[in-house]
Amino acid sequence: MQTNTIFKTWAPNWLIKGVLIYCMLPSMMLLGLYNSNATYTASYLDIDPEDMQFIISLTYGTLLATVLIEGRFFKYFPTRNYFLFINAASALVLILSAYTSNYYQFTLLRIVEGLCMALPGVSLRMLLLSRFPSKSATIVVYSIFYGLLLCSSTFTIHLMVWMMDHYDWLHMAYGAAFFQVVGMGLMLLVFNTNRYGRKIPLYQVDWISYLLVLPGVLCGSFVLVYGEKKYWFDSAQIAVYAIVAVVFMGLFVLRQLRIKRPAFNMSVFLNRQVTTGMVLFIFFYICRATLNMCYATMGEVWKWEPMHMYSTLM
Protein backbone atom coordinates (compact mmCIF):
# COMPACT_ATOMS: atom_id res chain seq x y z
CA MET A 1 0.00 0.00 0.00
CA GLN A 2 1.31 3.41 -0.93
CA THR A 3 1.82 5.97 1.72
CA ASN A 4 -0.37 8.61 0.09
CA THR A 5 -3.44 6.35 0.04
CA ILE A 6 -4.15 7.19 3.70
CA PHE A 7 -5.05 10.73 2.58
CA LYS A 8 -8.12 11.74 0.62
CA THR A 9 -7.38 12.10 -3.08
CA TRP A 10 -8.75 15.63 -3.34
CA ALA A 11 -6.50 17.01 -0.57
CA PRO A 12 -3.57 19.04 -1.96
CA ASN A 13 -0.08 18.38 -0.67
CA TRP A 14 0.21 21.77 1.05
CA LEU A 15 -2.98 21.13 3.03
CA ILE A 16 -1.79 17.69 4.14
CA LYS A 17 1.54 19.15 5.27
CA GLY A 18 -0.23 21.90 7.20
CA VAL A 19 -2.54 19.43 8.95
CA LEU A 20 0.36 17.16 9.92
CA ILE A 21 2.35 20.09 11.30
CA TYR A 22 -0.65 21.36 13.27
CA CYS A 23 -1.33 17.89 14.69
CA MET A 24 2.19 17.83 16.13
CA LEU A 25 1.60 21.08 18.02
CA PRO A 26 -0.81 19.94 20.78
CA SER A 27 1.59 17.26 22.04
CA MET A 28 4.42 19.79 22.16
CA MET A 29 2.24 22.33 23.96
CA LEU A 30 1.29 19.75 26.58
CA LEU A 31 4.96 19.42 27.53
CA GLY A 32 4.93 22.99 28.77
CA LEU A 33 1.32 23.24 29.92
CA TYR A 34 1.88 22.60 33.63
CA ASN A 35 5.57 23.44 33.59
CA SER A 36 4.68 27.01 32.58
CA ASN A 37 2.63 27.54 35.75
CA ALA A 38 4.11 24.92 38.07
CA THR A 39 3.85 27.13 41.16
CA TYR A 40 0.16 27.82 40.60
CA THR A 41 -0.54 24.15 39.88
CA ALA A 42 1.32 23.08 43.03
CA SER A 43 -0.70 25.52 45.15
CA TYR A 44 -3.94 24.36 43.53
CA LEU A 45 -3.14 20.72 44.36
CA ASP A 46 -1.74 21.69 47.80
CA ILE A 47 1.62 20.03 47.13
CA ASP A 48 5.26 21.08 47.26
CA PRO A 49 7.04 22.40 44.14
CA GLU A 50 9.18 19.23 44.14
CA ASP A 51 6.02 17.14 43.90
CA MET A 52 4.93 19.12 40.85
CA GLN A 53 8.35 18.70 39.29
CA PHE A 54 8.12 14.96 39.90
CA ILE A 55 4.72 14.83 38.18
CA ILE A 56 6.21 16.60 35.15
CA SER A 57 9.14 14.16 35.20
CA LEU A 58 6.69 11.24 35.22
CA THR A 59 5.10 12.63 32.06
CA TYR A 60 8.48 12.98 30.36
CA GLY A 61 9.56 9.51 31.51
CA THR A 62 6.39 7.84 30.28
CA LEU A 63 6.74 9.64 26.95
CA LEU A 64 10.34 8.48 26.60
CA ALA A 65 9.54 4.84 27.34
CA THR A 66 6.45 4.73 25.12
CA VAL A 67 8.33 6.01 22.07
CA LEU A 68 10.09 2.62 21.97
CA ILE A 69 6.87 0.75 21.18
CA GLU A 70 4.52 3.32 19.62
CA GLY A 71 5.37 2.24 16.07
CA ARG A 72 3.69 -1.13 16.62
CA PHE A 73 0.42 0.49 17.60
CA PHE A 74 0.57 2.82 14.60
CA LYS A 75 0.93 -0.14 12.23
CA TYR A 76 -1.81 -2.15 13.91
CA PHE A 77 -4.70 0.34 13.82
CA PRO A 78 -6.15 2.24 10.82
CA THR A 79 -4.27 5.54 10.68
CA ARG A 80 -7.18 7.96 11.05
CA ASN A 81 -8.81 5.98 13.86
CA TYR A 82 -5.45 5.76 15.65
CA PHE A 83 -4.90 9.52 15.66
CA LEU A 84 -8.53 10.33 16.46
CA PHE A 85 -8.52 8.05 19.49
CA ILE A 86 -5.29 9.57 20.82
CA ASN A 87 -6.56 13.13 20.43
CA ALA A 88 -9.89 12.28 22.04
CA ALA A 89 -8.17 10.53 24.95
CA SER A 90 -5.79 13.45 25.42
CA ALA A 91 -8.65 15.97 25.46
CA LEU A 92 -10.55 13.83 27.98
CA VAL A 93 -7.51 13.55 30.25
CA LEU A 94 -7.01 17.33 30.15
CA ILE A 95 -10.61 17.96 31.19
CA LEU A 96 -10.45 15.33 33.94
CA SER A 97 -7.23 16.94 35.22
CA ALA A 98 -9.08 20.23 35.65
CA TYR A 99 -11.72 18.60 37.85
CA THR A 100 -9.39 16.84 40.27
CA SER A 101 -7.45 18.30 43.16
CA ASN A 102 -6.17 14.94 44.40
CA TYR A 103 -2.42 14.51 44.02
CA TYR A 104 -2.51 10.81 43.17
CA GLN A 105 -5.34 11.13 40.68
CA PHE A 106 -3.58 14.04 38.99
CA THR A 107 -0.34 12.03 38.86
CA LEU A 108 -2.08 9.09 37.20
CA LEU A 109 -3.68 11.39 34.65
CA ARG A 110 -0.32 12.95 33.82
CA ILE A 111 1.15 9.49 33.22
CA VAL A 112 -1.71 8.76 30.82
CA GLU A 113 -1.06 12.14 29.18
CA GLY A 114 2.55 11.06 28.66
CA LEU A 115 1.26 8.04 26.74
CA CYS A 116 -1.00 10.24 24.62
CA MET A 117 1.87 12.60 23.80
CA ALA A 118 4.25 9.79 22.80
CA LEU A 119 1.96 7.73 20.57
CA PRO A 120 1.44 10.17 17.65
CA GLY A 121 4.82 11.92 17.68
CA VAL A 122 7.08 9.67 15.59
CA SER A 123 4.23 8.60 13.30
CA LEU A 124 3.32 12.18 12.40
CA ARG A 125 6.96 13.00 11.62
CA MET A 126 7.19 9.92 9.41
CA LEU A 127 4.06 10.91 7.50
CA LEU A 128 5.37 14.45 7.10
CA LEU A 129 8.64 13.07 5.72
CA SER A 130 6.67 11.17 3.08
CA ARG A 131 5.23 14.46 1.79
CA PHE A 132 8.70 15.88 0.97
CA PRO A 133 10.13 13.92 -1.97
CA SER A 134 13.42 15.84 -2.07
CA LYS A 135 16.73 14.54 -0.71
CA SER A 136 16.70 17.23 1.96
CA ALA A 137 13.36 16.02 3.37
CA THR A 138 14.90 14.86 6.65
CA ILE A 139 16.59 18.20 7.24
CA VAL A 140 13.43 20.14 6.41
CA VAL A 141 11.09 18.03 8.55
CA TYR A 142 13.34 17.89 11.60
CA SER A 143 14.05 21.60 11.33
CA ILE A 144 10.29 22.18 11.41
CA PHE A 145 9.84 19.74 14.28
CA TYR A 146 12.56 21.09 16.55
CA GLY A 147 11.72 24.67 15.64
CA LEU A 148 8.14 24.04 16.75
CA LEU A 149 9.38 22.24 19.85
CA LEU A 150 11.51 25.21 20.91
CA CYS A 151 8.78 27.76 20.18
CA SER A 152 5.87 25.76 21.60
CA SER A 153 6.99 26.21 25.20
CA THR A 154 7.09 30.02 24.90
CA PHE A 155 3.80 30.05 23.01
CA THR A 156 2.18 27.84 25.65
CA ILE A 157 3.47 30.05 28.46
CA HIS A 158 2.02 33.21 26.93
CA LEU A 159 -1.27 31.53 26.10
CA MET A 160 -1.69 29.99 29.55
CA VAL A 161 -0.69 33.20 31.35
CA TRP A 162 -3.28 35.14 29.35
CA MET A 163 -5.97 32.56 30.10
CA MET A 164 -5.12 32.44 33.81
CA ASP A 165 -5.24 36.25 34.00
CA HIS A 166 -8.63 36.46 32.30
CA TYR A 167 -10.26 33.18 33.24
CA ASP A 168 -9.45 30.30 35.62
CA TRP A 169 -7.88 26.86 35.93
CA LEU A 170 -10.84 25.10 34.31
CA HIS A 171 -10.79 27.30 31.23
CA MET A 172 -7.07 26.66 30.82
CA ALA A 173 -7.79 22.93 30.50
CA TYR A 174 -10.66 23.62 28.11
CA GLY A 175 -8.35 25.74 25.98
CA ALA A 176 -5.76 22.96 25.78
CA ALA A 177 -8.46 20.39 24.97
CA PHE A 178 -9.77 22.69 22.22
CA PHE A 179 -6.51 22.32 20.29
CA GLN A 180 -6.98 18.54 20.37
CA VAL A 181 -10.56 18.83 19.07
CA VAL A 182 -9.45 21.09 16.20
CA GLY A 183 -6.81 18.50 15.33
CA MET A 184 -9.50 15.81 15.20
CA GLY A 185 -11.52 17.93 12.79
CA LEU A 186 -8.51 18.42 10.51
CA MET A 187 -7.78 14.69 10.55
CA LEU A 188 -11.34 13.90 9.50
CA LEU A 189 -10.87 16.43 6.70
CA VAL A 190 -7.77 14.95 5.02
CA PHE A 191 -7.42 11.32 6.22
CA ASN A 192 -9.39 8.43 4.77
CA THR A 193 -10.03 5.08 6.47
CA ASN A 194 -7.09 3.20 4.94
CA ARG A 195 -4.25 1.67 6.91
CA TYR A 196 -0.60 2.74 6.66
CA GLY A 197 1.27 -0.34 5.48
CA ARG A 198 0.79 -3.93 6.56
CA LYS A 199 -1.01 -4.74 9.80
CA ILE A 200 1.42 -6.06 12.44
CA PRO A 201 -0.10 -8.00 15.39
CA LEU A 202 0.37 -6.50 18.83
CA TYR A 203 1.76 -9.72 20.26
CA GLN A 204 5.07 -8.78 18.63
CA VAL A 205 5.38 -5.68 20.82
CA ASP A 206 8.45 -5.88 23.07
CA TRP A 207 6.48 -5.46 26.29
CA ILE A 208 9.35 -6.82 28.40
CA SER A 209 11.69 -4.02 27.32
CA TYR A 210 8.94 -1.48 27.97
CA LEU A 211 8.27 -2.86 31.46
CA LEU A 212 11.99 -2.72 32.21
CA VAL A 213 12.73 0.79 31.00
CA LEU A 214 9.60 2.45 32.42
CA PRO A 215 10.25 1.69 36.13
CA GLY A 216 13.92 2.53 35.62
CA VAL A 217 13.15 5.95 34.17
CA LEU A 218 10.45 6.76 36.74
CA CYS A 219 12.57 5.71 39.72
CA GLY A 220 15.51 7.64 38.31
CA SER A 221 13.27 10.71 38.04
CA PHE A 222 12.34 10.34 41.71
CA VAL A 223 16.02 10.28 42.70
CA LEU A 224 16.88 13.36 40.64
CA VAL A 225 13.88 15.39 41.83
CA TYR A 226 13.91 14.54 45.54
CA GLY A 227 17.59 13.67 46.01
CA GLU A 228 18.78 17.09 47.15
CA LYS A 229 15.78 17.61 49.43
CA LYS A 230 16.32 14.25 51.13
CA TYR A 231 20.15 14.61 51.32
CA TRP A 232 20.71 12.02 48.63
CA PHE A 233 21.87 8.64 49.89
CA ASP A 234 21.49 9.60 53.52
CA SER A 235 17.84 8.78 52.82
CA ALA A 236 16.96 5.09 52.63
CA GLN A 237 14.13 5.94 50.24
CA ILE A 238 16.49 7.60 47.75
CA ALA A 239 18.90 4.67 48.02
CA VAL A 240 16.14 2.14 47.29
CA TYR A 241 14.83 4.08 44.30
CA ALA A 242 18.36 4.51 42.95
CA ILE A 243 19.03 0.77 43.22
CA VAL A 244 15.74 -0.04 41.49
CA ALA A 245 16.56 2.42 38.69
CA VAL A 246 20.04 0.97 38.15
CA VAL A 247 18.81 -2.64 38.22
CA PHE A 248 15.94 -2.10 35.79
CA MET A 249 17.97 0.04 33.39
CA GLY A 250 20.81 -2.48 33.54
CA LEU A 251 18.42 -5.32 32.69
CA PHE A 252 17.00 -3.22 29.86
CA VAL A 253 20.45 -2.62 28.36
CA LEU A 254 21.39 -6.30 28.67
CA ARG A 255 18.18 -7.33 26.95
CA GLN A 256 18.78 -4.92 24.05
CA LEU A 257 22.27 -6.35 23.56
CA ARG A 258 21.06 -9.97 23.55
CA ILE A 259 17.83 -10.04 21.53
CA LYS A 260 17.69 -10.16 17.73
CA ARG A 261 15.31 -7.22 17.26
CA PRO A 262 15.94 -4.78 20.11
CA ALA A 263 13.50 -2.00 20.94
CA PHE A 264 16.51 0.32 21.15
CA ASN A 265 19.68 -0.38 19.19
CA MET A 266 22.62 0.40 21.48
CA SER A 267 25.04 0.63 18.56
CA VAL A 268 23.73 4.13 17.78
CA PHE A 269 26.01 5.45 20.52
CA LEU A 270 28.98 4.50 18.34
CA ASN A 271 27.88 7.08 15.78
CA ARG A 272 29.74 10.38 16.10
CA GLN A 273 26.71 12.39 15.01
CA VAL A 274 24.63 10.84 17.79
CA THR A 275 27.21 11.65 20.45
CA THR A 276 27.49 15.21 19.12
CA GLY A 277 23.72 15.52 19.25
CA MET A 278 23.69 14.30 22.85
CA VAL A 279 26.27 16.91 23.84
CA LEU A 280 24.19 19.63 22.18
CA PHE A 281 21.06 18.30 23.88
CA ILE A 282 22.72 18.52 27.30
CA PHE A 283 23.91 22.05 26.52
CA PHE A 284 20.46 23.25 25.43
CA TYR A 285 18.83 21.48 28.37
CA ILE A 286 21.12 23.41 30.72
CA CYS A 287 20.12 26.62 28.92
CA ARG A 288 16.46 25.74 29.35
CA ALA A 289 16.97 24.92 33.03
CA THR A 290 18.66 28.30 33.47
CA LEU A 291 15.66 30.00 31.87
CA ASN A 292 13.34 28.16 34.27
CA MET A 293 15.45 29.44 37.17
CA CYS A 294 14.97 32.96 35.82
CA TYR A 295 11.21 32.41 35.77
CA ALA A 296 11.29 31.11 39.34
CA THR A 297 13.39 34.05 40.59
CA MET A 298 11.15 36.63 38.94
CA GLY A 299 7.99 35.03 40.29
CA GLU A 300 9.02 33.91 43.79
CA VAL A 301 11.77 36.37 44.77
CA TRP A 302 10.95 39.53 42.84
CA LYS A 303 7.16 38.90 42.95
CA TRP A 304 6.62 39.89 39.33
CA GLU A 305 3.23 39.35 37.72
CA PRO A 306 3.27 36.44 35.23
CA MET A 307 2.28 38.56 32.23
CA HIS A 308 5.05 41.09 32.95
CA MET A 309 7.55 38.31 33.57
CA TYR A 310 7.10 36.54 30.25
CA SER A 311 6.78 39.71 28.19
CA THR A 312 10.13 40.88 29.61
CA LEU A 313 11.87 37.64 28.68
CA MET A 314 10.49 37.85 25.17
TrEMBL record:
Organism: Filimonas lacunae
Name of this protein: Major Facilitator Superfamily protein
Lineage: superkingdom: Bacteria
Record's keyword annotation contains Transmembrane helix: yes
Main location per the UniProt record: membrane
Location in or out of the cell: Membrane
Membrane disposition: Multi-pass membrane protein
Listed Gene3D superfamilies: MFS general substrate transporter like domains
Keywords annotated in UniProt: Membrane, Transmembrane, Transmembrane helix
Residue spans crossing the bilayer: 14-34, 54-74, 81-101, 107-128, 140-163, 169-191, 203-226, 238-257, 278-298
GO cellular component: membrane
InterPro entries per the UniProt record, alphabetical: MFS_trans_sf
Lineage of origin: Bacteria, Pseudomonadati, Bacteroidota, Chitinophagia, Chitinophagales
